[in-house]
């Protein structure tokens, strides 16, 4: 069971957003795919707070898949499926056999900030395929807005990320909005969260 201090800090705020966004659908069972689940800390909290959702965690790293399995076992979660290996930069046909129009929700927490633009394209392309009509893609993290990064601490974060890998960096909301539109989705809401993070809510049209 790996531990992410960041996940421990932000899970409550994320749960609050998800509960608010999904409240009008809580009368029925939903299916959600989490891309880049990481340690598994988020998905077990989500399952505890939102029992009306069946969760499918995923990641590309074997050690993280092992950690997710350990969290599921430790919490005796009944609404979390075993994690699958999924590379969001791949075409959706390679997304662990998840069928077209099968998901009510796709979630990506801090995935776009540490991934290449190819992965961002893959996330929106794949979500456009696997989401049901009116399904939601929810992304969380720090974003640029119209090419501008504020405040200075986020500029520093962007520089640090690009130092590790020049192909990655804070994604721009306007670019993501266009990617979504091209894949049949529209940006519905921007929700401000602590430490300059935001949740972007996209809906499949």
What does this structure look like?
By secondary structure, the protein is an alpha/beta fold. It has six helices and seven strands, in the order H-E-H-E-H-E-E-H-E-H-H-E-E. The protein has helices spanning 5-22, 41-49, 62-75, 117-130, 152-164, 173-182; strands at residues 30-35, 53-59, 84-85, 103-109, 131-141, 185-192, 198-204. The protein has a seven-stranded mixed beta sheet, with helices on both faces. Helix 3 (62-75) links the parallel strand 2 and strand 3 (84-85). Helix 1 (5-22) runs parallel beside helix 2 (41-49). The model has no long low-confidence stretch (mean pLDDT 94).
Total DSSP helices:
6
User: Distance N terminus to C terminus?
Assistant: 38 Å
Q: What is the average per-residue confidence, as pLDDT, rounded to a whole number?
A: 94
Q: In what order do the strands lie side by side in the largest sheet?
A: 3-2-1-4-5-7-6
The succession of helices and strands, N to C, reads: HEHEHEEHEHHEE
Number of strands: 7
Largest sheet: 7 strands, mixed
Based on CA inertia axes, which overall geometry fits? globular
Estimate percent helicity. 25-40%
> Which spans have pLDDT < 50 for at least 5 consecutive residues?
none
Q: Any idea what the radius of gyration is? A: 16 Å
Approximately what portion of the residues adopt beta-strand conformation?
15-25%
Structural class by secondary-structure content: alpha/beta
